[in-house]
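Need the bound structure for phenylalanine, inputs here:
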Amino acid sequence: MQDKSVTNREGFTSNIGVIAATLGSAVGLGNIWKFPYVTGENGGAAFILVYLICVTLVGLPVMIAELMIGRRTKRNAVEAFEQLAPRKPWFLVGVAGVISAFLIMAFYTCVAGWVYAYIFKAATGSISSTQTKVTSAIFSSLSKSVAQPLFWQLLVLLVTGAIIMTGVTKGIERVTKILMPILFLLLLVVDIRSLTLPGANKGLNYLFNPDFHKITVTVILAALGLAFFKLSIGMGAMITYGSYVSDDQNLPATALTVMLSDTLVSIMAGVAIFPAVFAFGIKPDAGPSLLFITIPAIFSAMPFGNVFMVLFFILVSIAATGAMLSLLEVPVAFMREKLNWSRAKSTVATVVGIALVGSTATLSNSILANVLVFGKNLFDFYDFVTSNILLPLGGIFIALFVGWFWGYQNVKQEFSNHGELSNDGIHKIYMFLVRIVAPIAIIIVMLAGLNII
Ligand code: PHE
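Answer from helper R.:
Posting the output first, comments after.
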């Protein structure tokens, strides 16, 4: 019963495929759109420092925990817990993950829709301007209209849904493997342009010269939430991807590679944005619009800017797609395996669900602007609840599960691939991190950041 589809389950076919797919999930709008604007809202370098501590001490251990659970059970996020802890409430962590996937997709597809729209706007030259008043007006007119952003959001959902339907190995692996390196190179080009703008050094100073007075509990919670969002953890995406990983892969090494590369891409996005922010006199705390105001101005200030800008938004949309595939895969794998639905039916149900919730996120910039939950519009609310509450909460339970319930022997086996690898010493440090450091750190940061203590 428990093994009903294990034997004919698809999987990632190679070492590089596993890293590419996992990295494809981690690298996305989180790096290019969210990391810069959240850094800008929280004061720059000091925030980045806290972020780095969060990814290392909490993010990495939880990521490894999820990959281990997935690979061991070869199940979706819900059934993985059911299998390792039958008739215990741990499966609720998986259920919360399925819900998080819907809520994240709600605003994520909205932003991906803006990116799609910008490909076309860049191609027609209609967003080329070094005047940030102009670029910001262009962005407002897109995000604050009704039909346009809804149309792009729906297109995003159709495209990602279609890719998911073709299946794991063919769909995910192939797309991400080829395009990640190109995105990396293009970011490098944007970095160089941004760094050579007059006044760029203020931006570098903002990014790398920490002012420790700016660290507050809210800043720390934002950094922790971003770490979870960035690494695609706390909601079962990495459990699901881990379930497609073969037994001979080195999980801690994979997770470390992914974490480092993902952080590098985020920093590179910061280096692309902030020198330009200061050079063009944009406010660093402009919020979600920051990328869309800054990037057109940077490209407009360079030769062949339009061509590069089209390419840039195409690559960002592809990076976003890699992340969305992993988000969709959580509910889709659950419906297929738990409810025994076909891949097609599960995908359609998921896409329709996201379209419904997602349209409320998109319209919260226009006709639903007055609908506020805890003082936030729906877009910000979905973002806040997932990053700052659901993902860290999922992280606590995943860490506790692996550290205390599943325990030392299993971790040791997964770290060494049952004695094949010599990851031997590090599993002890790892145990300390997942058992003690990660859960306690998340609990304290959440309670303080949410004003509970
Ligand atoms: N990590 C992705 C990004 O940074 C977003 C994501 C979050 C993907 C959670 C899957 C799960 O864009």
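Comments: The pocket of phenylalanine is lined by residues 25-26, 28-31, 104, 229-230, 232, 235, 237, 323, 326-327 (CB under 6 Å). Residues 216 and 449 are 9 Å apart (CA to CA).
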